[in-house]
Each structure stands twice: as C-alpha cells, then as structure tokens.
Amino acid sequence: MPGAIDHAKRALRADLRERRALLSDAQRAAAEAALTARLNDLVATTGARSVSCFLSTTTEPGTRTFIREAVARGIRVLLPITREDGLLDWAVAGDEDEITTGLHGLPEPTGEILNPMALDEVDLLLVPAAAVDRTGMRMGWGRGYFDRTLGSMQKCPPAYAVVFDSEILDEVPRDVHDQPVTGAVTPERTVVFPLT
C-alpha cells in the first residue's frame, strides 16, 4: 500500500508535468539554446571527455542540441537504453543516429548496445529529473532507473540533474532508495550543492 511519501511524490510529479506542458514552443526553443550553453560550459569546466546524457522528450529541458554539438566536438556521449530488469544499457551517440521509442515510451538510440558497466568510463553524468532540492536530493519520474544507476556505481563521477529553474525546490519528498546529485543545470544557471 502506497505511503505518504509515494502520495507526495505523485502529487508533485503531476504538478511539475502540468507546468512543463504549459511552456510554448518558443519558450522550449529558448530554454534549449540557453541550456546547451550551460551544459557546454559545464563540460569545459570539468574537462569531461566522456559524458552520459539522455534524449529529452518534448516536455523536458532540451538536450538534443547539446548532444549533437558535443559529438561534433569529439566528446563521447553515452545515451541510456531502458531494460526490463530496471537497469540501463548505453549506446554511444553518433552523427546520424536513429531514435526509437523504448520502454515507457521514451526516446532511445538505436546504436550498438553497451552494458551498464560502460558508465564507469564517463567523466560526467547528466541525468533527467522531475525536481531536485537545495541539498541535492533528486526526485525522478518514479521508475528508479537513475537511482539504481547512481546507487550502484563504485566511483561515481559528478552527476548533475537537468531541470528547469523552477524545479530546484526547497525540499522534495525522499525515500531510502533516492540518490542525491552533485548539482543541477537549468537554462538559467548551474548549481553545485553543498556536500552533506
């Protein structure tokens, strides 16, 4: 039976989905351009030569321009592929990648599939989120893929949630399996959370 935390997460996710759906195409395009600049700056600042990212849906902060530009600059970009067992496989982004619909209706690459261990080679993780709070606690969309990924890495590189600025909240509901992130990147700013 779902508890208070599950109910609070469901309500917050519904509110966040509704807010994202209200953005116009022009607002989304402007946000993607600004976010691309912020992500490029983060890659440059960290010196990352290999990153993980995700193919954004139409309502998420847009990552696709960043991915194309990073690949063109010679950055190795790994994109997630969902699995039935709750883990993520990965594929290296290319210039002419085809995109398919994966589990849960999410966009995924069609390239050569690498196992979950491929993530051990990246310098920077860029992960989707519904929201993140000021302590760095990330709240995802409820399937647990990225919590499992972050929680299973022996040596986790810096991990940044990619969200809209209004999705950095004072507090998000948290459960024992939820994993924190190093920081957040929005179209307006990059935030590094204090170590707790």
TrEMBL record:
Record field: catalytic activity: (6S)-5-formyl-5,6,7,8-tetrahydrofolate + ATP = (6R)-5,10-methenyltetrahydrofolate + ADP + phosphate
EC number(s) given by UniProt: 6.3.3.2
Taxonomy, superkingdom: Bacteria
Single GO BP term: folic acid-containing compound biosynthetic process
Binding-site residues, substrate: 55, 60
Molecular functions (GO terms): 5-formyltetrahydrofolate cyclo-ligase activity; ATP binding; metal ion binding
Metal-binding keyword on record: yes
Cofactor(s) recorded in Swiss-Prot or TrEMBL: Mg(2+)
Binding site for ATP: 9-13
Keyword list, A-Z: ATP-binding, Ligase, Magnesium, Metal-binding, Nucleotide-binding
One of the Pfam families matching this protein, by short name: 5-FTHF_cyc-lig
UniProt-listed Gene3D superfamilies: NagB/RpiA/CoA transferase-like
N-terminal signal peptide: none
PANTHER family xrefs: 5-FORMYLTETRAHYDROFOLATE CYCLO-LIGASE, ATPASE INHIBITOR/5-FORMYLTETRAHYDROFOLATE CYCLO-LIGASE
Sequence similarity: Belongs to the 5-formyltetrahydrofolate cyclo-ligase family.
The protein's name: 5-formyltetrahydrofolate cyclo-ligase
Organism taxonomic ancestry: Bacteria, Bacillati, Actinomycetota, Actinomycetes, Micrococcales
